[in-house]
Structure formats: structure tokens, C-alpha cells
Amino acid sequence: MMHQIEHWFFNLDPFEKGLLIYFLVLFIIWVWKYANNTLNEPVFSFFKPEPDYELAVNKKEFVSEVVRWGIWNLSYQGADQKRKKVNVEVSYYPHKKIHGVFCSSQNKIRIYVNNHPDIDRLIISSLHEVVHLLQWYSDKKNFQNRYYKLLQEKTYEKHPMEIEANKMAAEHTESCRNYLIATGKLRIKN
């Protein structure tokens, strides 16, 4: 069988060989992109570009609305269903290491808005911090100690509470974005 394939390939004219190699390279690139698709991005995103968004409100109002949406729409076992308010602060100064933080002692979410390359990343960071708020609601007494104990035992990337916050934020980004478009806080650029 292999001999037949070799014989067939070597009997092709140079143009046919070049075309075959070209499509083989495209296939390999496609397989590589699909195999390394850890963010569940569409494989064919280079054929159909994602729409570009722009804020219809200022960044503080936008982040506050994302946080409000997250508090009411993300369910978390053990979190009080009478969701209390949280202070939302935006910082326009870039932070070298983080995109946002939830401070339980001040009941505050701070988002470094200029650390985000696009709107979806800003939504993800804001929802990520809402998940930490909900984690705190579910176990106020032990939240701080548990968080820092796990941080010492594992790296930030392997921290179970961070993994959970990343997963929940990513799962709800599209729903939140659709809500923001429907309420006029976000619009699709033409």
C-alpha cells in the first residue's frame, strides 16, 4: 500500500505536488490550532471574525453593571440568596500582575480596567471577582484562611478557588455580554 502511495505521489506533476503540499500544511495548521484550543475559541475564527464591541457607558458604570449582573445571575451553593451589595472600584492605573481583586475585609471589588485587551476580558475579570464574592458569601468565617492556605499549598494557577472563578466567569461571559448589549451598556461596532 505504501509503495502505491509513493508511486502515485512521484508521478504527479510539480503543480499538483505543490498543491498537495500546500493543503497538507493548511491541514496541519488547522489540527495544531484545534489541538491547542484551550480557551474553547471557535476553530474557524479566522474565517468569521468576532464582532468588535465598544462601551456605551463609562468604564466604572460598565464594570458596576457586570458585577450587578453577576451577583444576580451566578448561582453558588451556600451563598445567601439575598445578595448584598458590594463596593465596586475601578482603577485606571495598570497593575503589573493582576486584572482585578476582591477584598473581603472591605467588601470591595477593584478592577484594573486598562489591563484588559478587549471587552470580553474585562467582563471575564469582573465576573471572576464576583465568583470570589460568592465564595466569600458561602463561607465568610473561613474564606480568608482557606484561600491563603490553598495559595501556599498550590500555585495561583492550580488554586481550586481560582480555577472555579475562571471557569464560571468564562461560562457566563456570553450571557452577560448579551445582557449588556440588550440594556444599551455595550454596542457592536459597525
- Using the alpha-carbon principal axes, give the shape: elongated
Question: Any idea how many domains?
Answer: 2
Oligomeric form: single chain
SSE pattern: HHEHEEEHHHE
Highest-level CATH class of the largest domain:
Mainly Alpha
Share of residues in helices: 40-55%
Give the percentage of residues in beta strands: 5-15%
Please tally the helical runs, counting DSSP H or I stretches of 4 or more residues.
6
Structural features, described:
Strand 3 (100-103) and strand 4 form a beta hairpin. This protein is mainly alpha-helical and 190 residues long. The protein has 2 domains: 1-49, no CATH class; 53-188, Arc Repressor Mutant, subunit A. Helices cover 53% and strands 11% of the residues. The strands form 2 sheets. Strands 2-4-3 form a 3-stranded mixed β-sheet, with helices on one face. Strands 1-5 form a two-stranded antiparallel ribbon. The model has no long low-confidence stretch (mean pLDDT 84).
Task: Provide a compact summary of the structure.
The protein is mainly alpha-helical.
Based on the model shown, name its key terms:
190 residues; mainly alpha; three-stranded mixed beta sheet; 6 helices; 11% strand; elongated
